[in-house]
Amino acid sequence: MFSRLLEPRTGRTTADVIRYAMWPLAIMTVLHRVIVKAVDGSITDDFRPVYNAALAFLNNRPVYTADFGSVDPHYLYPPSGTLLMAPLAVIDPERSRWLFIGANAIAVLVGLYLLLRLFDLTLSSIAAPILVFAAFSSETVTNTLIFTNINGLIFLAEMVFLLLLLRRRDLWAGAALGVTFAIKPVLAPLLLLPLVRGQWKVLVTAVGIPLVLNVVAWPLSADPMDYIRRTMPYVGEARDYYNSSIAGNGLYFGLPDPLIWFFRIVLGILVLVALWLLWRYYREDEVFFVVTAGGLLLVASWLLGSLGQMYYSMLLFPLVMSVVLKNSVMRNWPAWLAVYGFLTFDNWWVHRFNEVGRNIEYTKTTLAWSLLIVVVAGVLVSRYLVARKEGRLESGIDPAWLSPAATRDPDERTETSVR
Question: pTM higher than 0.85 for the full model?
Fold first, then answer.
């Protein structure tokens, strides 16, 4: 009897087979990324500057002493972020780093669970193991753990914010953003979502929490003004290394400023057009609007701003996961070509063809983010033009086959089984 309990179950449906196949792959991939890749680390170490800053803060020594002339990771958090990171330096750096890796891995897993719930999916769906496997196979999660960056915790905060925003828990949603703003403002573009939805209370905690933490941290810091004098000007400049923004890549490859601005302006116009169409025709479709507009705002801030790094792409998981929605803008092959470009852990630097390989590797994220913007804008504009031609703008711009009166989508049965 006991041996029969240990006997592996045989999948009787396609969904069962996929679940039984994917969960071991997902679990072993998570363990490999955390125990092997992350613990081994890399020459790029984002944790060391944070630990050193936390240690200096606890000992009342200057924090903002980085040499911005080097290409080593720099400490860029404001005093509020230093205050929040200070507990890391209570123990030795090696164990502290391991704990931080574990915290980020757990945060990613919890964030992925919340992402499933955002789309009314459960852990028993086939989407769950596929999502975990894909996420931990990506560059963004892998390098977040290897470099020991805080992006995993930022992703968790993003998911908490989106869920609470949709449930109209405004103050708590703002608190999730506010904690991240106290460290780094990478999610700042998402503030536009509650503004256009009339959820003004989000601003109270989103802005209030970092302000309060800075008020507390300022007198405890040895050199808080150096953050304003030295660090803030550096953050606002485009650097020509480890930077996938248009400005950063343009500087690296020596493009003339007018050409850099041309690309930024053209893509900026596409973003504005897409955002207008989303607000005009989809703001009542709350989940679709929030994840699509939010993803578009984030990728635009990295691509068109001064700094965009590939591992920020973890914050685009909600947009990518929106493929389960029937009206998603991600249901086409160019969208997934873009996803491959900004999530892949593949290295395209072919040393036999050194120059070509280097160019592909250094531009793949920039091109992928650009393609994503083109795809989102292209899908929405195409829907608008078709709806206008067919005279049904008053009822929205979703394809006609999505209307209740249309024939049921033959792929809907597959989508139902995913859930």
Answer: yes
